[in-house]
DNA sequence: GCCAATTACATGTATATACATCTAATTTGC
DNA sequence: GCAAATTAGATGTATATACATGTAATTGGC
């Protein structure tokens, strides 16, 4: 089994980027009917779990440059999936899932769960292992200065 | 150990995309002094290993849309890292690493090896496991129609 | 061999992504 | 409390990425 049709790559980064592309195709096929991209779905889901967070905190959680989020959040705010208000610190935005956004997430959730289920089945128990290793690596290489919040 | 500073994400796709972003930062920091992006380095390395391939074959290997490669290859061809010539089938391009490209790869290789080594150390033996699981998943979800070449 | 279907790549468009640089707000030293 | 240093996010720019669609070449059916 596992009759490799893809040549292995010598580079860990290239390998994980390739897997991310493959997964992105699978998941975007799933949520496309709801007008969502992978990143957008992820942000909806994270906001739903995390409640109110600043743009910078969201960037930390996703290991994504805060200025990258400026563009994606602009799209999502325009579509009224997210509400933003200034925090006590007037430089930062407090972000929250709007009712529309929560509804949007709810609608797409079954399609996402299907993709998620398919991955679990294909990996035959290995998906938890994969997630754990991926998270260990992310934690290990994500710069420590990013901590201070806890 | 492994005092998780990052919250786990419920989504396999989001998790792997996050890891890919973290890895990309590490590896791009390494090869940036040589004017290379992660994707560009990967293409140099793959061409060095694979010899002459068509654009479509390269897309299969990287699980990347062939039309995406059009843009990246245009950049790399402009910089003379790659030579393209029409194949017997005049629709396709036969791609090859140029001497300049091979030199470019050679120059950046030690910096890449450092990043690679750092990942290996951080993962304490788990990096092979991670690569294997990632490749299994990629093979499992990559559409089978993509085979015919072997 | 011809026409229809398919294939390989190009192009238009939208989003994702990061870095350099900029501005405004906050924090730190004194 | 003020000036200097830092921080949060915005903006300009370049690349990465995929999909829809277009064009030219190839293949398949007859």
Write the layout of secondary structure elements.
The structure is a homodimer of 150-residue chains.
Chain A: H1 12-31, H2 38-50, E1 53-54, H3 55-62, H4 66-78, E2 82-86, E3 93-97, H5 99-123, H6 126-141
Antiparallel strand pairs in A: 1-3, 2-3
Chain A binds a DNA duplex (30 and 30 nucleotides) through helix 1, helix 2 and helix 4.
Would you kindly provide a brief summary of this structure?
The structure is a homodimer of 150-residue chains. Chain A has 150 residues and is mainly alpha-helical. In chain A, 63% of the residues lie in helices and 8% in strands.
> Which structural class matches the secondary elements of chain A?
mainly alpha
Largest interface: A-B, 63 and 64 residues
- Spatial shape of chain A: globular
Total beta strand runs of chain A: 3
The gyration radius over C-alpha positions of chain A equals 17 Å
Distance between the termini of chain A: 45 Å
Task: Assign the CATH architecture of chain A.
Answer: Orthogonal Bundle
Based on the structure, what is the oligomeric state of the protein chains? homodimer
Helix content of chain A: 55-70%
């Amino acid at each position: 089994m596992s009759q490799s049709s893809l040549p292995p790559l010598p580079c860990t980064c290239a390998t994980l980027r390739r897997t991310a592309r493959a997964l992105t195709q699978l998941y975007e096929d799933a949520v496309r009917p709801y007008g969502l991209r992978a990143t957008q779905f992820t942000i909806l889901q994270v906001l739903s779990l995390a409640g109110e967070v600043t743009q910078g905190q969201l960037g930390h959680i996703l290991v994504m440059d805060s200025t990258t989020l400026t563009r994606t959040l602009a799209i999502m705010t325009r579509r009224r999936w997210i509400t933003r208000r200034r925090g006590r610190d007037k430089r930062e935005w407090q972000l929250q899932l709007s009712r529309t956004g929560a509804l949007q997430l709810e609608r797409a959730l079954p399609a996402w769960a299907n993709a998620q289920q398919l991955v679990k089945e294909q990996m035959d128990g290995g998906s938890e292992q994969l997630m754990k290793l991926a998270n260990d690596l992310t934690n290990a290489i994500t710069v420590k200065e990013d901590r201070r919040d806890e």
